[in-house]
Amino acid sequence: MSTFLDTIKARAKQDKKTIVLPESMDRRTFEAAETVLKEDIANIIIIGTPEEVAENSKGLDISKATIIDPFTYEKTEDYINLFVELRKAKGLTYEEAKKQALEDYMYYACLMVKAGDADGVVSGACHSTANTLRPSLQIVKTKPGVKLVSAFFVMVVPNCEYGANGTFIFADSGLEQNPDPEKLAAIAACSAESFELLAQEEAIVAMLSHSTKGSAKHSDVDKVVEATKICKETFPGIKVDGELQLDAAIVPEIGSSKAPDSEVAGKANVLVFPDLDAGNIGYKLVQRLAKAEAYGPITQGIAMPINDLSRGCSADDIVGVVAITCVQAQAK
C-alpha cells in the first residue's frame, strides 16, 4: 500500500467522521466496513433491512457498525419531510418522497447527510455514477460558489519521479463529458484545491492537449488555451499553464525545451484533460500499464463529500475512498 493512503488513513483517524454506506446488497460493502472499523478509520452507518444485512455480511465482523433499517428507523419520517421540503418547488409529494427514499438507499443516505446525521457517503459499487450523483445534487446540492460538480482520480504511480513523488490528480476522468472553457477552468481550480487537501503539497496544474504552446492548430486546442486564460484570470493564486502535451507537463527536460517560460511545464501534479474520453482513457492506461493505484472517482463541488465508486472496485478500494471522504469531510 502506498504511503499516500497510509497518510490519508492516519489523518482520517485524527478526527473521525461518520460515513454512510448505502449498498447493503453488496458483500464488498461489508468487507470494506469490517476493515474500516478494525483500523478505526471512521464510524460507519450501513443502510439496509436485517435480512439484507444478514445475507451479505455472513462471516464478517461488523458489530461496531450502525445498521439503519429505513423501514423502522425513528428518523425516517423526518427525512421524508426534509426531502419534500427540499423538492417542493419541483412538485415532489410526500408519497413520492417516501417511495424514493425507501426504494433507493442512496436518497436515504443523502438525506442523513443533509440532516447532519452523517458526514459523507460512499456508493457506486453496484450503481451507476448517475444513480449516485442524482440524489446528491437534488438533496445535498453544490458547494456555494462552485459552478459544477466534477470527478477526479488520485493516481499513485510506483517508483515514479514525476508529479509529487508519483502522486497526481487526473481530472475530469469520471463525469463531465465535454467541458467548455469555463467548465474546464472550474475543474482546474477545484482539482488544485483537492490536490492540496489530499496530497498536502502545492498544486501545479497542467491543462493538457495534443499541442504545446501553439504547436498544433485546432478548435480543440483553442478550447484549452481559452480555459487556461480564464483559470489564470479567475484564480490568480493557482499555478496553472497550458496548453501542454503530457510529456511537456511532467518531464522536466521536455517541459524546459517545449515551454521554456512556463512555471508549470515539467513539474505538473494536477493533470486536467480536455474531455472525459481523454481523462478516462488516461487514468485507466496508467492504472493498468504502470500498475498505479487509482482512488476514485472522487467528486468535488458537492456541498458535502459524496463519492462514487467504480463498479469494478474491490473492498480495499472502498476502504481507500472512505478514508479520502473522511479527510474531505474534515475540511468542511
List the helices and strands and how they pair.
Layout: H1 3-14, E1 18-21, H2 27-38, E2 43-47, H3 50-56, E3 66-68, H4 76-86, H5 94-103, H6 105-114, E4 120-123, H7 129-140, E5 150-156, E6 167-171, H8 181-199, E7 204-208, H9 219-234, E8 239-244, H10 246-250, H11 252-258, E9 270-272, H12 276-289, E10 293-300, E11 306-308, H13 315-330
Parallel strand pairs: 1-2, 1-4, 2-3, 4-11, 6-9, 7-8, 7-9
Antiparallel strand pairs: 5-6, 5-10
Care to describe what's here?
The protein has 332 residues and is α/β, with parallel strands linked by helices. Helices cover 45% and strands 16% of the residues. The strands form 2 sheets. Strands 8-7-9-6-5-10 form a 6-stranded mixed sheet, with helices on both faces. Strands 3-2-1-4-11 form a 5-stranded parallel sheet, with helices on both faces. The chain starts with a helix and ends with a helix.
Distance between the termini: 27 Å
Strand content: 15-25%
Please compute the radius of gyration using only Cα atoms. 21 Å
Unreliable parts: none
> What is the general shape?
globular
Strand order of the largest sheet: 8-7-9-6-5-10
Structural class: alpha/beta
CATH class (first level) name of the largest domain: Alpha Beta
In the CATH hierarchy, the third-tier topology of the largest domain is known as Rossmann fold
Q: Report the CATH architecture of the largest domain.
A: 3-Layer(aba) Sandwich
Main sheet: strands, sense, barrel: 6 strands, mixed
